[in-house]
Amino acid sequence: MRTKGNRDSNMLLWTLHEPSTIALTIMYCLSFILGFIGNLMSLRVLTNRHSRRLASVSATRSLLVNLAVCDLAVVCVCMPITLGSQIYTAWVYGDLLCRAVPFTQAVSVSASVLTLTVISVNRYYSVRSPLRARSMFTRRRILATVAVVWTVSSIMCAPIAVMNQRREISFGTFAILVCQEVWPQHRLKQGYNVLLFVMLYCLPVTFNLTIGFLTGRRLWGGKKSTFADLDPRSQALHASRLKTRQKIAKMVVCLVLLFAVSWLPLYLADLWIDCEQRPPSWLLQTRPFAQWLGLTNSSLNPICYCFIGDLEPCRGRVAVFI
Fold first, then answer.
1. pLDDT tens digits, residue range 261-287?
2. Residue ranges of the G-protein coupled receptors family 1 profile domain (predicted)?
């Protein structure tokens, strides 16, 4: 027979009866299905035999593969456990996952935005100086750049893996284990979160939007009379390449804007919570939804590939990124 204390503890631990948890469960399930299928389809198209033959002229394709891997890691690792910890308050996944899940989320987000930065630079040079871009962005250099991106991301996010740990919280007659960041001083946590906000959000987003504007100005503001003296076949080839480059430029800007909109609420919520000794209850209640929005960014990126860029995995057609 259950005691009253056991019933009370179950009510505190399990949150399935709460409307916010029901809404989050539905939202996470939809995001997981969309992200899992979308990113697998993107990887299948980007890594097929045809695209590997075109690797020498397709640096953007290789970088998009890395971006899809980042997104798939967020969808498969972070989404299920984040939802599970929302449904059942106690942390039951062990100390390793307590450190690994937040670290995976941070590293994947960091690698995503840094990969977008490399893609933006690649597209700018491809428009400004195509021949130089092909010599700069070789397959070997792209692979080295991807390795640097993951290394830098891991170093920047290493404190998250160190500081996250399980701790016991008492609720009257019973106690539970939760997974939290435990810093020696609160100011250290504040400073680190501000550093991440500046290095992994403000600077990359500003830089990518700026270079996206410069790329767009060259693509849409160029002189069309330059190719007027070409034969019709050469003009058609140039028009086709220009259209492809414009589509890719739109896709990159859309990916950056989507990243900015998705992650800004969570960054601001965490910075606000760090500054308050007693954060408002509404802020604590809305933070899980802000985290869902940030994680859902990984599910929405394939939509940009499909409907804005020229990858179009939903129709199974592979474009040549030149």
1. 999 999 999 999 988 888 898 998 999
2. 38-305
Q: What is the pTM of this model?
A: 0.84
- Give CA–CA dist 107/149, Å, rounded: 10
Per DSSP, helices labelled H in 201-231 are 203-220
Residue 58 · residue 123 · CB < 8 Å: no
> How many residues are listed for the chain in this entry?
322
Q: pLDDT for 4-20, tens place per residue?
A: 445 455 555 777 778 88
Whether 122 has a pLDDT exceeding 60, the answer reads yes
Domains of the chain: 4-315 (1.20.1070.10)
Tokens matching residue 229: 């003296």
3-state per-residue secondary structure call for 38-76: HHHHHHHHHCCHHHHHCHHHCHHHHHHHHHHHHHHHHHH
- The Cα angle at residue 242 between residues 238 and 243, in degrees rounded to 5: 120
